[in-house]
Design a protein that fits this description.
InterPro entries: Permease_MalE. It is built from eight helices and no strands.
């Protein structure tokens, strides 16, 4: 037991150093992918293909997730509001929650879980087949050719999914709140805009846009550095989804705090 305890600090230090190294390499991959953004002609075709792929694989799941989310929030908030005698405020709370927090996180997690896993497996397959090394031998930077279009495609699709999540969630909440709990439609929609302002929608789209970059950067980097063989690719996919979720929630907290300082909530 004593030798194991003696080795524990060294093991923890090595894990921390490895995590910092991975974080640095991830940032390098992200910045290198953005560096050649101006050369749109080289990656436009791949960008369109990736956008279509992400829309196709996330369109239906986002609807299936957003409607129950809106319904669940509506039911919970409606019960609390009924106990307080403020059922007319359910619509305002539901729409505010969907716009400010639920929509960007749901869009980012869908892009990461569905599209990001596919990106990781694709990049990992290219890595174990030595296609990335072959591109470098031919004088082609694989980051510029493959990562750049995926970064912009994931960020674009993530921002476009936000309105879909908001609409589906509000429709689900409207059905259960108005039809299930007896709130009048006028009261529901009158309160829907009580707590929202135009900057709230802008920060929501900005969050989703940033989260899309994060999901694509993590997926590409994890796939390009995965271990050899199918097992390495599978572990890379799992690690990419987990890391993206952790980073997205952390960045969401930071962006929300900054926004609340710059734009105080309406009193």
């Amino acid at each position: 037991m004593m030798p194991s305890l003696a080795r524990a600090p060294g093991l923890a230090r090595r894990r921390v150093e490895r995590s910092l190294d991975e974080t640095g390499l991830l940032c390098v991959t992200f910045l290198e992918g953005l560096r050649r953004t101006w050369d749109v002609r080289r990656w436009w075709g791949e960008f369109v293909g990736q956008c279509w792929f992400l829309v196709r694989v996330t369109g239906l799941p986002v609807m299936l997730i957003a409607v129950p989310l809106g319904a669940t929030i509506s039911l919970q908030v409606g019960d609390i509001a009924r106990q307080l005698g403020a059922q007319s405020g359910t619509g305002a709370l539901l729409v505010a929650a969907m716009v400010q927090q639920v929509a960007p996180l749901a869009a980012a997690l869908l892009v990461s879980g569905v599209g990001g896993s596919a990106i990781t497996s694709d990049m990992g397959a290219r890595n174990i087949r030595d296609e990335l090394a072959a591109l470098e031998v031919m004088g082609i930077n694989p980051v510029h050719r493959l990562v750049t279009p995926r970064l912009w495609a994931a960020s674009t699709v993530s921002a476009l999914l936000c309105p879909v999540v908001i609409m589906a969630g509000v429709l689900g909440g409207y059905y259960f709140n108005v039809i299930g709990q007896g709130v009048s439609p006028g009261a529901f929609f009158d309160g829907a805009t009580a707590l929202l302002r135009f900057p709230d929608l802008l920060i929501t789209l900005f969050k989703a846009w940033v989260f899309g970059f994060i999901a694509a950067a993590v997926a590409c980097h994890t796939g390009m550095t995965c271990g050899h063989g199918p097992v390495g690719v599978g572990r890379a996919v799992n690690r990419a989804v987990v890391v993206t979720s952790v980073v997205v929630f952390a960045v969401n907290y930071v962006l929300t705090m900054i926004y609340q300082v710059l734009v105080p909530p309406r009193s």
